[in-house]
Amino acid sequence: MSGIGTGYDLSTTTYSPDGKVFQVDYAGKAVDNGGLALGIKCKDGVVLGVEKLLAFKMLVPGSNRRIAAVDRHAGMAGTGLAPDARAIVTRARQECAQYLSFYGDRIPAKILADRMAHYLHMFTLYWSVRPFGASTLLAVKDHELGYALYLLEPSGEVQRYFGTAVGKGRQAAKNEIEKLVKADAAGSLSCRDAVKHLARIVYSTHDEKDKAFECELSWICDQSGGEFRRVPKELAEEAITLAKAALEDDDMADA
Amino acid sequence: MDYGVPPELGVDPSASGGISTGTTIMACVYDGGVVLGADSRTSTGVYVANRASDKISSVTDNVWMCRSGSAADTQNVCAYVKNLVDQHNMERSDADPGMADVKLVANLTMQIAYKNKDKLSAGMIIGGWDSKRGPQVYGIPLGGSLLPCPFTIGGSGGAYIYGWCDDTWKEGMSREEAEAWVTRAISLAITMDSSSGGVIRLVTIDDKGCNKQMLEPYKHLMTYGELPVKRVGVDAMAA
């Protein structure tokens, strides 16, 4: 990076001469080093998946979840620095609760996404803070949009997606998701099928060097009653079993 | 404060608790919309300060508010709510500017009424139509509670017509039936309540928009004896 060593990367309050804010770029690097987080919007809902990398063997299985519900109708999957992602989730929960108490109704997807974008953006404007080292996927159901999937980035950028991926192996994952969306021109992909695709992508893009990981899967769809929930255990286990089998088939073919 | 009230009337408005305490307001849902109705008497004690006032204020095209209690209090609550709704519409940049979520408006009104319950004398009814929940009516009486209901009545005149309204209310009325029902209810209240009177104002809201009507006194009888009222309990016993 051309700005390194010139002093332009020490604070978000100074642009580099070619118009970059390096601290924001570095926050993006922190995200790139986190496990894969991905999501797909289907005809009947949104599915989120995360490759949770395990730093130690003694961690209790299922602890330190990277996917969290922020309201009955909204949930988030984070990657990058886990504590930063948790802070973003906490803020999203506060926004949902504040909106509900003030307006007496669930927060619409667009307003939640916009408010979170403003929040993240604030951390790119002052020398006294650092931008979040985490990106989050936001899955919401509301009256206006039906089901929606957003990606929130450390820069404060928010975009709505059919499907996307962030973190390690995101490029390969994005290609896989694009293939899915292209193959599904009729828009008939169901969340049940998407769960299996996401698990497959998490396993197929996993880097062997990282060794242990857990595949977390959550969704908000018609089958979950329009509420953000973990994918039912049986379905999640089936998806993971299929993903592992597909991986072994690939290895056999390679050998 | 000089209200311009002739001294020979012997009325001191500041001693009588300010302007407009007596009223009849109501709102009901029908098949596809809502009707809001109100009388038009604004009084300061026994003096009628305005005989053709408008107690149904618009928050947006699709949400309207019937006001009872202090005119000053309710006008200001309405102005605050309008402002909050405008701010919310700016946050929802894709929103249709003339429209609002009825439940949201009712909740904002309730918040203001409840937080300032010690200072306000304001009873309000919110009625409107939105694409999310269709026609809706919410009552926000004096303490600041929020009551979703198919129809509700308020103001001093309302007390006289609870029985009649409960007795004659029908679910799934047509627009014409609902307008006639509200008109009849308010004219009954006007006959009994000395602080309700003047014209009857109606606002009808449905998916196509809102419509205001004003019914002058000669269109509805104003005195109890003139009304061919079927006295449900008494006549039934006599028969």
From TrEMBL, chain A:
Name the Pfam families for this protein. Proteasome (PF00227), Proteasome_A_N (PF10584)
Organism's domain of life? Eukaryota
The record, for InterPro entries, names:
Ntn_hydrolases_N, Proteasome_alpha, Proteasome_alpha-type, Proteasome_asu_N, Proteasome_sua/b
Q: Where is the signal peptide?
A: none
Gene Ontology CC entries for this record:
cytoplasm; nucleus; proteasome core complex, alpha-subunit complex
Cell location: Cytoplasm; Nucleus
Keywords, alphabetical: Cytoplasm, Nucleus, Proteasome
Matching entries from SUPFAM superfamilies are given as:
N-terminal nucleophile aminohydrolases (Ntn hydrolases)
Where would I find the Proteasome alpha-type subunits domain in this sequence?
8-30
Gene Ontology biological process terms, A to Z = ubiquitin-dependent protein catabolic process
Stated role: The proteasome is a multicatalytic proteinase complex which is characterized by its ability to cleave peptides with Arg, Phe, Tyr, Leu, and Glu adjacent to the leaving group at neutral or slightly basic pH. The proteasome has an ATP-dependent proteolytic activity.
Family assignment from sequence similarity: Belongs to the peptidase T1A family.
Q: How does it assemble?
A: The 20S proteasome core is composed of 28 subunits that are arranged in four stacked rings, resulting in a barrel-shaped structure. The two end rings are each formed by seven alpha subunits, and the two central rings are each formed by seven beta subunits.
Stated name of the protein: Proteasome subunit alpha type
According to its UniProt entry, this protein's organism is: Micromonas pusilla (strain CCMP1545)
From TrEMBL, chain B:
Task: List the catalytic residues.
Answer: 23 (nucleophile)
User: Which reactions does this protein catalyse?
Assistant: Cleavage of peptide bonds with very broad specificity
Report the domain of life of the source organism: Eukaryota
> Where does this chain mainly localize?
nucleus
Q: Does the keyword Protease apply?
A: yes
What EC numbers are recorded for this enzyme? 3.4.25.1
As for subcellular location, the record says:
Nucleus
GO cellular component annotations of the record = cytoplasm; nucleus; proteasome core complex, beta-subunit complex
GO terms classed as biological process? proteolysis involved in protein catabolic process
Q: List the Pfam families.
A: Proteasome
The Gene Ontology terms for molecular function here are: threonine-type endopeptidase activity
Keywords from the UniProt entry: Cytoplasm, Hydrolase, Protease, Proteasome, Threonine protease
Q: What's the name of the protein?
A: proteasome endopeptidase complex
Tell me what organism the protein belongs to.
Answer: Micromonas pusilla (strain CCMP1545)
